[in-house]
Amino acid sequence: MADIRLGDRAPDVKLNEVSADQYNLKDDMKHRPGWRFLVFIRGSWCPVCVEELRQIQENLAYFSEEDIHFTCISTDRADNLRKMKQEYNFPFPVLADEKNQALKDYGVLYHEGESSPYDDHGEHGEAACFLLDEEGRLLYQHKQTGPFGRPGVKDLKKIVNFIRKNKKEFASSGQEVKKPNMPY
């Protein structure tokens, strides 16, 4: 399983977008510059996941003003995700990762054995959220092994504000640019 650390460049994502052809994270970041939340959901069948996406959609104006964009990734079948995207009119890319490549790259693919206390045995993706800066470096990650406890939209806003106030700045030479201490 991948181990991505804060400050690392995030793996590129090349998957099918459910209402288009091919999606490439690096290309998307050029076309929609700014920060990026990658939101991994279990599937269109998960009411908690769908509600999370609906809350994001309702708050897109705030995130757009902050130059923050969203991309959703799931192991669910493309046709199921396409129906979900159309039903809720989600304006952000929804990607089908049916071969689990992005989930492996981001370390959110889990295997639940027969001894698991849950009914969903086998390989599956778990809910996760990654925030990338404009260069594709990891600023924040949240992974979990259950449907509850993921950060809500209010939490995502707090995370963005905290990171913006406390993020180190780097010059083109790669040297840290010192700035005054910021109160939380």
Automatic annotation (TrEMBL):
A matching Pfam family: AhpC-TSA
The reaction(s) this protein catalyses: a hydroperoxide + [thioredoxin]-dithiol = an alcohol + [thioredoxin]-disulfide + H2O
MF-aspect GO terms: thioredoxin peroxidase activity
Alphabetical list of InterPro entries matching this protein: AhpC/TSA, Peroxiredoxin_BCP/PrxQ, Thioredoxin-like_sf, Thioredoxin_domain
GO biological process, any: cellular response to oxidative stress
Recorded GO CC terms: cytoplasm
Gene3D superfamilies: Glutaredoxin (3.40.30.10)
Domain of life of the native organism: Bacteria
Domain spans labelled Thioredoxin: 4-165
Statement: the UniProt record of this protein carries the keyword Disulfide bond: yes
Enzyme Commission no: 1.11.1.24
UniProt keyword Disulfide bond present: yes
Keywords in alphabetical order: Antioxidant, Disulfide bond, Oxidoreductase, Peroxidase, Redox-active center
Enzyme class: oxidoreductase
PANTHER family assigned to the protein according to its UniProt record, in alphabetical order: SLL1159 PROTEIN (PTHR42801:SF7), THIOREDOXIN-DEPENDENT PEROXIDE REDUCTASE (PTHR42801)
Family from the record: Belongs to the peroxiredoxin family. BCP/PrxQ subfamily.
Function of the protein: Thiol-specific peroxidase that catalyzes the reduction of hydrogen peroxide and organic hydroperoxides to water and alcohols, respectively. Plays a role in cell protection against oxidative stress by detoxifying peroxides and as sensor of hydrogen peroxide-mediated signaling events.
Name of the protein: thioredoxin-dependent peroxiredoxin
Provenance organism: Alteribacter lacisalsi
Organismal lineage: Bacteria, Bacillati, Bacillota, Bacilli, Bacillales
